[in-house]
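fyi for ur records
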Amino acid sequence: MRRSSIIGHAVELLDSIRSSPLPADVLTNEFFRKRHYLGSRDRREISSVVYGIVRGSILLETTCRKVFRTLGRGPAEAPSIALFVVFALAGGRESSDSLLLDAGSLWRMFVPAVTAEEFVQTLLALPRPDEEETDPIRKSALRYSMPEFAVRQWYETYGADQAVRLCASLNEEAPTTIRVNTLRCAPRECREALQAGGIKYRPTLLSPVGLALEKRINVQSVGPFRNGWFEMQDEGSQIISYLVGPKPGMRVVDACAGAGGKTLHLAALMENRGVILAIDDDPQRLQHLGERMERAGAGIIRTAVAGEDGGVVASWRQDADVVLVDAPCSGSGTLRRNPGLKMRLTLPLVEEMSRLQRSLLDQYAALVRPGGRLVYSTCSLLRQENEEVVQSFALTHPEFVLGNAGALLAEAGISPIGAGPTISLLPHVHGTDAFFMAVLSRSAQG
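which gave:
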């Protein structure tokens, strides 16, 4: 395919990602599904460019605005073709002459007020915004295209060196990780089957049933997946299930189950004995869980749509041995997988999610029996959604006591992660997505 056509497709996909709340991978898959004429090489090139732009979106947009301000004309918001031009010229990826030749017609269509030649000449004459920034926090936020409020918090929490390493890790590509489903096979059997199919892997560092694959795979074409031998699941997500600590015969609630990755892992840890109530507010996600349950051989899971359950949830009041609230959150800990989130990660969003999380904890804590356990987790890196939510809950629910999450994981054979009352998994330290976890135990008197 001609280079100009590749650029046109990349700009079209980028426009879609910038204007939609849906994850970038979902939009990308749908984009390619509707364009069967694109070969695998074209799709890889388009994806690589678009994801590179999305990961660097804050710096690229800041650079574009600076160029337009210097010229004294141009759009207030950087069009996608301008982001592409800045990205393509950065680091010598392309020469300005070839870029102007390939992207010129698209540029004239989207930016009539400024010629592509003017833009490129001005761009090359100006220092990068992050290079001329003197404040270290703003410099890091620009260089790694992270929201400044988040970077400022990471500097306060982890110190400058660790904050910079965290920012860098969030711009890396996430590993492809699977969880062996012990309801269908032993880990050794799954490893042997993958090896026989030419799929290379390594054991994960923390999860005893996790495998990190060397490259992405089309799971639908892999026999062991179709047979229910494994599920796609980040290693950090797997660790949450071990913190829940379910045992065969227990009554367990997964209060924000989604499509059920953790729910299925809980069923495996319970050896398909007991009962799990999986709750979510989206019937479609629960329907998808039903399909996954059948493949995985998980027969102890019951589902309920939040608010539409006909009293099922209320019947579990003070009856669950463990309740997991893996709460909806900003998703800041998953930026490696969903870089488009950084375009929408704002302090008002975080505050909105914090209010929702507190409400969910209040609501589902009522299902924990006296002497039972409440586990709270998020895939957020921000204290407003993590420590502050747990602290607020503990103040208003004296019957719950914060436990030692690190010690509980060690008892489950997952160590060393930490020894404190809460656990934070970090991509630059543990190689997982970022997760926060806390355990609260209800007194035996209720």
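Residues 235-442 form a domain with the Rossmann fold fold (CATH 3.40.50.150). thats all i got for now
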